[in-house]
Specification:
The structure holds two protein chains of two kinds. Helices cover about 75% and strands about 0% of the residues of chain A. By secondary structure, chain A is an all-alpha fold. Chain A folds into two domains: about 10-125, Rna Polymerase Sigma Factor, Chain: A; about 130-209, Arc Repressor Mutant, subunit A, CATH 1.10.10. Chain A starts with a helix and ends with a helix. The model of chain A is unreliable at about 1-10 and about 120-125 (pLDDT under 50). Chain B starts with a helix and ends with a helix. The relative contact order of chain B is 0.03. Chain B is mostly helical. The chains are: A mainly alpha, B mainly alpha. At the A-B interface, helix 2, helix 3, helix 6 and helix 9 of A face helix 1 and helix 2 of B.
């Protein structure tokens, strides 16, 4: 059996399994919910970590994702696959937290005042982030790259993170972002071009040895 | 020129640094934490239903209404008082007069 047909079979089996799982979930089956959490927890956590770059935030948001699923599974209408729906919630929740943090930074006077009297907020510190899945020799470069990914537009950042960090295909990214495949290809291409420019400037400013 | 090539090389290496990265994993107790958060949420909803908020809003509205009605009643009563105080000497005279002016007229007639 060829690799392609084997992949198609695996995906079809996964879809059937998800469909069955969904029925059980909509009947309020707790064992089915546990199965769903254990099946998707690493994908959700890895996606959240890719966006938030903080293990505590990623853990909290991942839990929120599954709580949201638990509350709204009855309303899920199978317009998208279960995994797509879960990824969408993970992306939305992560971006919501990023936007919230950005608003906080803009109105940062009181926070600065607060941090003057209190301990600094560890959750805000993303500079020392190191993704646990990155190979040791790439860690320093990956830290620089994650810093530059932050400067991309929200759409470019989402497409790039889903494709690079979570390893999704263009088709999967397109379904999650509700876009066409060419649009996603274009987004990722532009993201790479922007990153190249940003990294070039970064290395020019921080002269290489 | 050499530096430019070096930077180009480093940019390329940096862009490739996320290739073949492994997926980050949560621990085995993730489900337990989700479960406990769900239970905590359910308990919170049960112990502090929306009625608590409704009661406090109703109490505030009631206090405002009582205040307004007290002010309105107070202003009406003070208006009446002002009116009655202008007639006060005549009313007092009528109430406390101890003699009848017709008494002497009646005496003269007799």
């Amino acid at each position: 059996m060829s690799f392609v047909s084997q992949t198609v079979l695996t995906q079809t089996a996964g879809a059937i399994e998800d469909s069955e799982l969904l029925k059980q979930l909509q009947q309020g089956d707790e064992a089915a919910f546990k199965h769903l959490v254990n099946k998707y927890k690493d994908r959700v956590y890895n996606t959240c970590l890719g966006f938030l770059r903080n293990p505590h935030d990623a853990e909290d948001v991942s839990q929120e994702v599954f709580i949201k699923i638990h509350h709204s599974i009855a309303d899920f209408r199978e317009e998208a696959s279960l995994s797509t729906w879960i990824y969408r919630i993970a992306v939305t929740k992560s971006l919501e937290l990023i936007r919230y943090r950005k608003r906080g930074k803009r109105s940062g006077f009181f926070k600065a005042l607060n941090s003057f009297f209190n301990e600094p907020d560890e959750a805000m510190d993303e500079s020392g982030f190191m993704h646990p899945g990155i190979q040791l020799e790439n860690k320093e470069r990956a830290r620089v790259l994650f810093g530059e990914i932050d400067k991309l537009s929200e759409k470019q950042r989402t497409a790039f993170t889903l494709q690079k960090v979570e390893g999704l295909s263009y088709q999967e990214v397109a379904t999650i972002m509700e876009m066409t495949v060419p649009a996603v290809e274009s987004l990722i291409h532009r993201a790479k071009e922007n990153l190249k420019k940003q990294l070039y400037e970064f290395y020019q400013q921080n002269e290489l040895d | 020129m050499k530096n430019k090539d070096h930077i180009d090389h480093e940019v390329q290496k940096t862009l490739e640094s996320l290739d073949n990265m492994e997926r980050a994993k949560t621990d085995a107790f993730f489900y337990s934490r989700v479960q406990s958060k769900l239970q905590h949420e359910t308990l919170q909803t049960a112990s502090s239903p929306g009625l608590g908020f409704a009661f406090s809003v109703a109490a505030v509205i009631l206090i405002i209404i009582l205040n307004i009605s007290t002010i309105l009643i107070g202003s009406t009563v003070s208006g009446e008082d002002a009116q009655s105080s202008s007639n006060y000497p005549a009313e007092t005279f009528e109430e406390y007069r101890v003699f009848d002016l017709n008494y002497y007229n009646q005496l003269e007639d007799n």
